[in-house]
Design brief:
It is built from 46 helices and 16 strands. It is α/β, with parallel strands linked by helices and 992 residues long. Among the domains are: 121 residues, Arc Repressor Mutant, subunit A, CATH 1.10.10; 153 residues, 3-Layer(aba) Sandwich (Rossmann fold), CATH 3.40.50.300; 73 residues, no CATH class; 83 residues, Alpha Horseshoe (Serine Threonine Protein Phosphatase 5, Tetratricopeptide repeat). A five-stranded parallel beta sheet has the order 8-9-10-7-11, sandwiched between helices. Strands 1-2-3 form a three-stranded antiparallel beta sheet, with no helix packed on it. Helix 30 runs antiparallel to helix 31 and helix 43 packs antiparallel against helix 44. The chain is elongated and about 120 Å long. Pfam families: BTAD, NB-ARC, TPR_12, Trans_reg_C. Keywords: DNA-binding, Transcription, Transcription regulation, Two-component regulatory system. InterPro entries: AfsR-DnrI-RedD_regulator, BTAD, NB-ARC, OmpR/PhoB-type_DNA-bd, P-loop_NTPase, Sig_transdc_resp-reg_C-effctor, TPR-like_helical_dom_sf, TPR_rpt. This is Tetratricopeptide repeat protein. Belongs to the AfsR/DnrI/RedD regulatory family.
Length: 992
């Protein structure tokens, strides 16, 4: 221990005297922090903290500017390093007390610190006292002093501090800490605490596999615990590891110990110095880990948990008062421990008899045994080793007895399950327990359950800013938002990303955002030092049963934002009941979230990890493709069912790709509609996910076609179009004519709905040719039908009539009566445009008869719409209004926003002809509202023109002019001939 780091003298002549409450204190055995009395003060950016750390560790001596620049930046400092150094020093001087940071000979020094001002100095003092106590044979006091010294560590020394000097000091301080640990463990074994030491030594040798002294102590502890074979196995493992890693043999001391164990040397059996235990005295434990200096947000949770803890401090006279227990559950890395420690520190005053803490290692392969934890708790509460019973039940009973009448807070961190926690609960009023776990402890009676979610975007950005620095984030706010979003707003991921950026001054925030943008590399990027998001998830995954792990892997492959129970059952090829049991168990482990009843979702980073597990662990690999194929089948079969319910008699479903996995069945139309719109985003995600594979592309295209109502809904139109384009690109790249024709057919409808008529006609023409070459009749029927109505909009009436006549013929060949009715109604509009009003009415009525005979109410509404137009032109205004109102009701009920808006527009036209301009204006305004974001600019221009006419009719000529001016602008941009008619409305004198 003589080789411990030296620290500055704590007082020098001329030092500043302050009260104890105002004294400055510093920490370097963890994050570099500063306190003024009990209040933590900010220490600035990472580079500023690096300067402070370098000065604190200079033993009170002056460090020259050159030395400090080398400490902060190494051999290649930035060009403005000296100016930056002076800026950091100036900022620190404002933070610290006057006279603490002094300038001397062009350099700087820390002076005038009080006793106990630096945690490293305190640790060194305790280590020196421990050495003296050990020299006098007082091993009990020596162990206590060493534990006090080690207690000053709060994670990695100089955590997050950049620069070569900090890195060198980190290595040195960690080496010293390990030396102290070895000394304390050696004393543990000298006093017969070999059984208790095995667990700690096992963890330490795993963390430091090449440190032979730890291996030697583990061998001795195992041997004295009656585990000779394990002790010899440690030697064999060590010998093999040293040979593989370093090419050397174990040192003589380790070899000698192995030989003594083989000989069963009696001198090894007993400790050299039996424990000398002091009289039992009441002990006030204070075991809470340090709270992080950059704790951010979570105000609602802090208040909620603080309120529960405060209930335990109410007078014991309160009727029915019981111990307060709160159990925090959440995914790994969501900040459960950070929040719990923060809340526990806030509540310390309410628990004057102490605070106990233990990491139960519930997410690891070897969770802590309750009896071991109870032994440690009892000793922390002042119970002598000899008085600690052997059995779990006796220890739990004694633990409750020792706590009786005391007010103690117990923080049980990282619990595996309620069974591990129950024996550790105080059970007496006045005490309280905080439990953190990845598992929701619904079976922990009386516990206040808290589900901790990820941070809000504002909280996430605030945390990122605290670590990286205000200046860097303010200069690149948008990339910073991209970073925290890529981190899924998960605190651990944000902390790792921010720490990496803080340690790399040459990186911009944009550089980090670009690295995190690659999903396949994102988890690998999110690691810094011993912190890694992937490792955190690995702990939870390793605890899963085989069926849970399979579900976790396979469901992570699906692209949608969430997944329904029925869809998950399809992907897993399980019954719905079995699937629900599995998914709910995953929810309890916090690896899956319950988005809503019957719906589940992954956190974004957990999904990436699940996919990595699927690629690594799913055997055979073909099961991944099989699961996604079943999911595609489920969506296609169900969407085809919805399509068939909406369009009775439509033959398209008979010409879709066959499916092996069944879909859902619906009792009536509204339930089918509800499913389609509820699953829209997930369904489209499934379509896109299957665009790349020749084996799935045809089914994906048919699924998109079956769900084409989504293209007219408004809410999903943009996603639908992007998906259709992706499928078209895939089909073309694979040279699949049939698939390309069908993908084009879905796009024709998209362009038609969007008012892009020229593009729609071009795509329809190519789709028709490709479908004819492939002998695929359904696309030929529907593209001919679409080209007919597009030709009407473009005033190409002869072309339109030809296309529609061919469409009617093809529909009849296909035996598709609803398709035939659609073409007849469109032909009615051609006749109407060419002055054949009587035949237009007859054709529309013919379409209605076919639809009504098939029970096709939604498409029957399209026929009534067409008939309403014909009746308006023939002067039968009352009948026209009735037909259009009937159509409007069905379109609203079917969530067809495009046709709802167009029906309102046509009703406004009827109102104008009937001399009701006020009603016309009301209907036109509603049409504009409904058609917002759907229908295209040409249709908007039509509605604006009619609205202007209606407004003029009620005397609002100014508004009318504005509507017509906007309509002219729209028509001019589109090159539409309607612009001339609207200009005539704007300038009637010129038109005359």
């Amino acid at each position: 221990m003589d080789g411990g780091p030296r620290v500055p003298e704590q007082r020098r002549p001329g030092s500043v005297t302050v009260t104890e409450q105002e004294a400055l204190r510093f920490g370097v055995l963890g994050p570099v922090r500063a306190w003024r009395g009990a209040e933590q003060i900010g220490t600035g950016s990472p580079q500023q903290r690096a300067l402070l750390a370098a000065l604190l560790l200079r033993e009170g001596r002056t460090a020259t500017a050159a030395e400090l620049i080398d400490a902060l930046w190494g051999p290649e400092p930035p060009s403005q390093a000296l100016a930056a150094l002076r800026t950091y020093a100036s900022r620190l001087r404002k933070i610290l007390d006057p006279g603490v940071l002094v300038s001397e000979s062009g350099g700087y020094a820390i002076r005038g610190l009080g006793e106990g001002a630096l945690d490293l100095a305190e640790a060194q003092e305790r280590a020196a006292q421990a050495e003296k106590a050990r020299g006098t044979g007082d091993l009990y006091r020596a162990r206590d002093l060493l534990n006090e010294a080690l207690g000053h560590w709060d994670g990695e020394p100089l955590a997050g501090v950049p620069g070569p000097y900090a890195e060198t000091q980190r290595v040195r301080l960690e080496e010293w800490r390990l030396g102290l640990l070895e000394s304390r463990l050696d004393m543990d074994l000298e006093q017969g605490c070999h059984a208790e030491a095995v667990s700690e030594l096992t963890a330490l040798t795993a963390a430091h596999p090449l440190r032979e002294r730890l291996r030697e102590l583990l061998m001795l502890a195992l041997y004295r615990s009656g585990r000779q074979a394990e002790a010899l196995a440690v030697y064999a493992d060590t010998r093999r590891l040293l040979a593989e890693e370093l090419g050397v043999d174990p040192r003589p001391g380790l070899r000698e110990l192995q030989q003594r164990i083989l000989r069963a040397d009696p001198a090894l059996a007993e400790p050299s110095s039996p424990a000398t235990e002091p009289p039992v005295t009441a002990v006030r434990p204070a075991q809470l880990p340090a709270s992080v200096p950059d704790f951010t947000g979570r105000s609602g949770f802090v208040s909620e948990l603080s309120e529960v803890l405060s209930s335990a401090s109410v007078s014991a006279d309160a009727a029915g008062r019981v111990m307060a227990v709160s159990a925090l559950a959440g995914i790994g890395g969501v900040g459960k421990t950070t929040l719990a420690v923060h809340v526990a520190h806030r509540a310390r005053a309410a628990f004057p008899d102490g605070q106990l803490y233990v990491d139960l290692q519930g997410a690891g392969p070897r969770p802590a045994e309750p009896e071991t934890v109870l032994g440690a708790f009892l000793r922390a509460l002042g119970t002598a080793d000899s008085a600690v019973p052997d059995s779990l039940e006796e220890r739990a009973a004694l633990y409750r007895s020792v706590l009786d009448g005391r007010r103690v807070l117990v923080l049980l961190d990282n619990a595996k399950d309620a069974a591990q926690v129950r024996p550790l609960l105080p059970g007496t009023e006045g005490c309280a327990a905080l439990v953190t776990s990845r598992v929701r402890m619904v079976d922990l009676a009386g516990a206040h359950l808290v589900d901790l979610d990820v941070m809000s975007p504002d909280e996430a950005l605030a945390l990122f800013t605290k670590i990286v620095g205000e200046e860097r984030v303010a200069a690149e706010r948008e990339p910073a938002l991209d970073v925290v979003a890529a981190c899924g707003f998960l605190p651990l991921a944000i902390r790792i990303a921010a720490s990496r950026l803080a340690a790399r001054r040459t990186w911009t925030v944009s550089v980090l955002a670009a690295k995190l943008a690659d999903e396949r590399r994102r988890l690998d990027e999110l690691q810094a030092g011993d912190l890694a998001v992937k490792a955190t998830f690995e702990l939870g995954y390793g605890q899963l049963e085989p069926a849970q792990a399979r579900a976790f892997r396979l469901l992570g492959l699906a692209d949608g934002p969430d997944i329904s129970l029925a869809a998950a059952a399809a992907a897993l090829d399980l019954a719905a009941e079995d699937t629900e049991d599995l998914l709910e168990s995953l929810v309890d482990t916090s690896l899956l979230e319950s988005a809503a009843p019957g719906r589940y979702r992954f956190h974004d980073l957990v999904r990436l990890y699940a996919r990595a597990c699927a690629e690594r662990d799913e055997q055979p690999p073909s099961e991944r493709e099989a699961a996604m194929s079943r999911l595609l089948d489920f969506y296609l079969a169900t969407a085809a069912q919805v399509y068939a319910i909406e369009r009775p008699g439509d033959r398209l479903v008979d010409h879709m790709e066959p499916t092996e996995y069944p879909g859902l069945r619906f009792e009536e139309r509204h339930l089918a509609q509800d499913w389609l719109y509820a699953e829209a985003i997930c369904l489209l995600a499934c379509v896109r996910q299957n665009a790349a594979g020749p084996a799935t592309l045809a089914r994906a295209i048919d699924l998109l076609w079956a769900a084409h109502d989504l293209s007219e809904s408004g809410a999903n139109s943009r996603e639908y179009e992007a998906t259709a384009n992706a499928l078209l690109d895939a089909a073309r790249s694979m040279g699949l004519a049939r698939a390309e024709a069908r993908a084009l057919t879905t796009l024709v409808n998209v362009h038609h709905v969007g008012g892009r008529f020229e593009l729609a006609d071009q795509e329809a023409e190519r789709a028709t040719l490709l479908a004819q070459e492939a002998g695929d009749l359904p696309p030929v029927c529907w593209t001919r039908n679409a080209r007919g109505i597009i030709a009407l909009y473009q005033n190409r009436h002869e072309d339109g009539e030809e296309h529609l006549s061919q469409a009617i013929e093809h529909f009849r060949i296909l035996g598709d009566r609803p398709g035939e009715a659609s073409a007849l109604c469109n032909l009615s509009r051609i006749h109407l445009a060419t002055g054949r009003t009587t035949s237009a009415v007859a054709l529309a009525q013919q379409g209605i008869e076919i639809y009504d005979a098939m029970g096709n109410s939604m498409r029957g509404a399209n026929a009534r719409y067409a008939l309403g137009l014909a009746l308006t032109q023939s002067g039968e205004l009352r009948s026209a209004t009735d037909r259009l109102q009937e159509a409007l009701g069905v379109f609203r009920d079917s969530r067809q926003r495009l046709w709802e808006g167009m029906s309102l527009f046509r009703l406004a036209e009827v109102d104008l002809v009937a001399g009701h301009p006020a009603q016309a204006a009301a209907n036109a305004e509603m049409a504009l509202t409904v058609l917002r974001g759907i229908g295209g600019e040409w249709r908007r221009g039509n509605v604006l023109t009619v609205l202007g006419r209606a407004l003029a009719g009620i005397g609002q000529h100014g508004r009318a002019q504005v509507c017509w001016q906007e309509a002219v602008r729209v028509y001019d941009e589109l090159g539409s001939p309607e612009a001339a008619d609207v200009r005539a409305l704007l300038h009637p004198a010129q038109a005359a």
